[in-house]
Design a protein that fits this description.
Layout lengths: L7 E4 L5 E2 L15 E4 L8 H7 L21 H7 L8 E6 L5 H13 L4 E5 L4 H11 L6 E5 L3 H11 L3 E5 L16 H18 L2 E7 L7 H6 L5 E6 L6 E9 L7 E7 L2 E4 L18 E8 L2 E13 L7 E4 L3 H15 L6 E7 L11 H13 L7 E3 L2 E2 L5 E2 L4 H10 L4 E5 L12 E5 L2 H8 L2
Helix pairs in contact: 5-6
The chain binds thymidine-5'-diphosphate (TYD) and magnesium ion.
Length: 451
């Protein structure tokens, strides 16, 4: 019996596939977004495919360490977990203009000296890419370029050239002939990416997909790709700042939350090897509302400054705004401050900002955030040579965070001589050159901070 032709319908908003056409997408609720798609590979009969599938045992699987391609950009290698893994797919997202194309052109130029590399651009002309290359000082004849928006063409070129690394900039501009929907629609982005994932796995080429994301993550495109790829990197930055932080939010071949730090200069992105010093605003005088803490995102400790502004909300609904910290975490911390520190911020607007555009994802920022709030509320500065870190529990207890000793020695390196930290984070032998105030409860911490 001939196999039945499969009909499927994909939503152009969320990419979800349905066996039947409906007016409203059952997954995202959008209206009139389902379009018919052809499902490649579905024609092979089930029996033929079942015979080919191989099964192995866990013990038989080779666990030799993944070989890595070092990109020549050490900060990028760090976020990737030690370099590009052949056959892996990396998604690198960020707002338009943040420096994705710049970083990748620099990286590919460095890579192409030792390995073949192909840069496919769907956004810019070859001339624009070449001009940027000149500006970056990477006029390199070994780097293959193509201006193209059809995925099939890029796949064919990659099969011909067999590059070690392939970049598609950006994935939203590519389209595949297998779908009828417009380029940029979620179904197109998803199907294009699926073809590139197949290419990577079959050929061993490392594929890097560039994706544009707006501040609110509004463009759903790159988000729907997160689960299809091996590694997801996002650019973070403060508006107007020249520093760029690249964070691994997912990595099948390394630690998540690893950070790479760059500075945008006239001739491209420069690596910042010692990022601790750049995120402190280094006031000349003591200012109220500022606290310095040590975060450890990924494997590297990093000194950051958190600023708070507490202002009378003039009878309106008090506002809580957190930039760089989770907003609901701030609400929770203020509740702990009220209940266990006896300090109320009802009737006050509270604004929190982590300097430098870094988004803190761990809880070590709890205590410093409250310290900054209190410092602003009382209009009393904290000591400039003091660092603070620690997690706060709902019962008012100060909990230890991982890597206490490492954080303290990073602070000493940058000239801090006092620390208010969770008791369990204090190394037994202490830290040479530093006076440490171990604290177990919020009220103890508040006392140690305002001596
Ligand atoms: P770009 O890499 O094009 O951003 P994306 O690909 O993420 O959209 O970066 C564009 C910005 O970077 C642009 O505003 C100019 C700036 N820039 C520099 O400051 N120096 C440089 O050497 C380059 C190439 C760009
Ligand atoms: Mg670009």
């Amino acid at each position: 019996m001939a196999p039945r032709a499969k009909r499927r319908y994909a939503c152009s908003e969320c990419g979800g596939q349905q066996p039947q056409w409906t007016g409203q997408c059952p997954e995202c609720g959008s209206w009139n977004t389902l379009e018919e798609v052809h499902v490649a590979g579905e024609v092979a009969s089930g029996a033929a495919r079942r015979a080919a599938a191989e099964v192995t045992t866990l013990a038989e699987v080779s666990t030799a360490p993944q070989p890595r391609i070092t990109t020549g950009v050490a900060e990028l290698d760090r976020v990737l977990g030690g370099g590009l893994v052949p056959g892996s797919v990396v998604l690198i997202g960020g707002e338009p203009g943040i420096g994705k194309s710049t970083l990748l052109l620099q990286t590919l130029a460095a890579l192409s000296r030792s390995h073949g590399a192909l840069y496919a651009t769907g956004e810019e002309s070859l001339q624009q890419v070449a001009l940027r290359g000149q500006r970056l000082g990477v006029v390199d004849d070994a780097l293959h370029l193509m201006a193209e928006t059809a995925v099939e063409e890029v796949v064919a070129a990659a099969e011909r050239l067999r590059p070690r690394a392939l970049v598609l900039d950006s994935v939203q501009t590519f389209h595949t002939a297998t779908l009828g929907s417009a380029p940029g629609s979620v179904a197109q982005v998803r199907e294009s990416a699926a073809q590139l994932v197949r290419l990577a796995k079959a050929s061993g080429t490392a594929v890097i997909l560039v994706g544009h994301v707006t501040k609110e993550g509004a463009l759903a495109g790159p988000r729907v790709l997160e689960h299809m790829v091996d590694t997801v990197l996002y650019f973070e930055s403060d508006q107007g700042s020249r520093y760029r932080v690249v964070r691994a939010v997912k990595n099948r071949f390394g630690a998540a939350n690893e950070l790479g730090v760059f500075a945008m200069a006239e001739d491209g992105l420069r690596q910042v090897r010692n990022p601790s010093s750049i995120f402190l605003s280094r006031h000349d005088q003591d200012v109220p509302g500022s606290a310095v803490f040590v975060t450890r995102e990924g494997s590297r400790p990093l000194l950051l400054e958190v600023q708070a502004l507490v202002a009378d909300s003039a009878g309106g609904q008090p506002r809580r705004v957190a930039v760089g910290l989770d907003g609901s975490r701030l609400a929770l911390l203020l509740a702990v401050l009220q209940r266990h520190g006896g300090i109320s911020t009802a009737g006050e607007d509270v604004f929190i900002n982590v300097v430098g555009g870094v988004r803190v994802q761990e809880t070590a920022g709890d205590l410093p955030a409250l310290a900054a709030v209190l410092s602003s509320l009382r209009n009393r500065p904290l000591a400039r040579d003091c660092v603070i870190f620690g997690e706060l529990g709902l019962a008012g207890e100060v909990r230890p965070v991982p890597g206490g000793e490492e954080r303290l020695s990073e602070a000493v390196k940058h000239g801090f001589v006092r620390a208010v930290v969770p008791k369990k984070n204090v190394p037994r032998e202490g830290v040479p050159g530093m006076t440490i105030h171990p604290v177990q409860r919020l009220d103890e911490a508040l006392e140690a901070l305002f001596v």
